[in-house]
């Protein structure tokens, strides 16, 4: 395959490529046509500010080096045709300031290390790593389809409901897997979601600004403080898809990615994101302070339960959103079919709290004069001041009962929140 063929107008592995007649031809790339280990570079799929994605093929790659799950559209192992891969190499312009250069290297390293440890059918895998003339590179499965962003541009409007359900369900599965391993993506958006050639499967990619929580740190070890990944004049994340807590610089968690997935779902069913603005700052401010427009105002045939699910995912407070991405996907799928999921039963923890409270109430409820005398013990003689002591105990029990009632009311309110 020639370099010109590789540069035809399409998008693969997240790299946008335009026809040569419509863009300035980049300088000749000395890597095109070379063989790196087992990979022969055919051409450039696309170029970004700090990376180049190449198309490569290899005919002798052992099966254990392939993704753990088969990818739609890939050449079957029994076929004799060479397997194709995408190679992403870090390229930093020579005039880049040292601080920014270090941040870009750390981000690339972080993305590589995280992706190497996350093996899920809908997370784009890193199959191999190495260096090209001192620059790090990663080898990924070649995905011939566009990004979800490009798909939305082609459709110029909302997607079909069944297609929306499929994409949200697959991405939610990938996010729940990442969250279970202590990884918060922090940049879920259509341009970081790759589709295969027939649009049936979607893959989450680009963990360059992911945040590691306890489980992730144990799994990966230290791979750089996320706060050091900010390049001067830039923001960690994409304002159109950022949760309020992320914009305000507060702690992030699974709910942060669930919010971003809610924005993606909103865009899939309406054709636009919930908040618009002339500048990224305006968009970010609206995420923090404004309620999103009701999706049914933009798409009248959207079932009300689906709108409720999307708006719950877009709640300003993380605790008001769904507890998992899968729970959101399930509620959205049911909602798009005009159904509401039944509310989950009260948590088991509530009954465990109730039992000790009942025991405490039983202990405090008898009057002091009705306390049974322990068997075998002689009657207690009347002593001076005993009446005053008994009166004090009654008052103490009354205060304890009042406090118990207040505690029960608080726990009931907490359980219903």
Overview of the structural elements:
The structure is a single chain. The chain is built from 13 helices and twelve strands. The protein has 417 residues and is an alpha+beta fold. The chain folds into three domains: 3-141, Phosphorylase Kinase, domain 1 (2-Layer Sandwich), CATH 3.30.200; 148-336, Transferase(Phosphotransferase) domain 1 (Transferase(Phosphotransferase), domain 1, Orthogonal Bundle), CATH 1.10.510.10; 346-365 and 388-417. A six-stranded antiparallel beta sheet has the order 3-4-5-6-8-7. The longest helix has 31 residues, at 386-416. The chain is globular and about 85 Å long.
Order of helices and strands: HEEEEEEHEEHHEEEEHHHHHHHHH
Give the radius of gyration: 29 Å
- Overall mean confidence score, pLDDT: 76
And the CATH topology of the largest domain? Transferase(Phosphotransferase), domain 1
Terminal CA distance:
60 Å
- What share of the residues lie within helices? 25-40%
CATH architecture of the largest domain, by name, is Orthogonal Bundle
């Amino acid at each position: 395959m020639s370099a010109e063929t590789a540069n035809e107008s399409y998008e693969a592995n997240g790299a946008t490529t335009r026809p040569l007649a419509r863009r300035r031809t980049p300088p000749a790339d000395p890597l095109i046509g070379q063989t790196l280990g087992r990979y022969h570079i055919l051409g450039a799929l696309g170029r970004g500010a700090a990376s180049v994605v190449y198309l490569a093929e290899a005919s002798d790659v052992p099966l254990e080096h392939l993704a753990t799950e088969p990818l739609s559209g890939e050449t079957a192992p029994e076929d004799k045709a060479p397997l194709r891969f995408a190679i992403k190499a870090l390229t930093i312009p020579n005039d880049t300031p040292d601080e920014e250069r270090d941040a870009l290297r750390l981000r690339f390293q972080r993305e590589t290390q995280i992706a190497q440890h996350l093996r899920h059918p809908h997370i784009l895998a890193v199959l191999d790593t190495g260096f090209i003339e001192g620059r790090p590179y990663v080898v990924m499965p070649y995905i011939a389809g566009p990004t979800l962003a490009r798909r939305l541009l082609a459709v110029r409007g909302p997607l079909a409901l069944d297609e929306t359900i499929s994409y949200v369900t697959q991405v939610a599965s990938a996010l729940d897997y990442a969250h279970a391993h202590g990884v918060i993506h922090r940049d879920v958006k259509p341009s970081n979601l790759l589709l295969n050639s027939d649009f049936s499967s979607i893959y989450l990619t680009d963990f360059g600004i992911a945040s590691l929580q306890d489980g992730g740190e144990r799994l990966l070890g230290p791979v750089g403080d996320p706060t050091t990944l900010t390049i001067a004049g830039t923001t960690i994340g994409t304002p159109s898809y950022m949760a309020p807590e992320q914009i305000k610089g507060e702690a992030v968690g699974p709910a942060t990615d669930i919010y971003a997935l809610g924005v993606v779902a909103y865009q899939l069913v309406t054709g636009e994101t919930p908040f618009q603005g002339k500048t990224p700052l305006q968009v970010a401010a609206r995420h923090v302070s404004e309620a999103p427009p009701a999706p049914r105002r933009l798409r009248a045939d959207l079932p009300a339960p689906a709108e409720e699910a999307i708006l719950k995912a877009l709640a300003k407070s993380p605790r008001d959103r769904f507890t998992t991405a899968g729970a959101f996907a399930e509620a959205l799928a049911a909602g798009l079919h005009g159904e509401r999921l039944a509310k989950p039963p009260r948590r088991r923890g509530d009954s465990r709290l109730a039992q000790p409270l009942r025991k405490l109430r039983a202990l405090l409820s008898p009057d002091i004069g009705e306390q049974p005398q322990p068997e075998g013990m002689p009657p207690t003689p009347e002593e001076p001041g005993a009446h005053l002591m008994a009166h004090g105990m009654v008052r103490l029990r009354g205060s304890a009962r009042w406090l118990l009632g207040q505690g029960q009311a608080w726990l009931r309110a907490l359980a219903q929140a």
